Amino acid sequence: MPDPVDRPIKMAILGLISAHPGTNRGGTAVSIVRLANYFAAQGILVEVLTRRKDLRDTSPEPVDPTVNIHVLRSRKN
């Protein structure tokens, strides 16, 4: 088993971005990206998880929030 000190540090940020017009989704996205960039600049691998309805889906049914999870990975500097 590898020494825990030798493993890279990794963290995940869960961001809830609203798909409703008139909400502050732009500000939320900017804050999440700034937070991810802060940790990535320190060499910490970051995954940003967002749950949102697929914008191509025009059905009126509510979306199960556990189905559509998008993962964005930051680059290690």
Automatic annotation (TrEMBL):
Superkingdom field: Bacteria
Name under which the protein is recorded: Glycosyltransferase subfamily 4-like N-terminal domain-containing protein
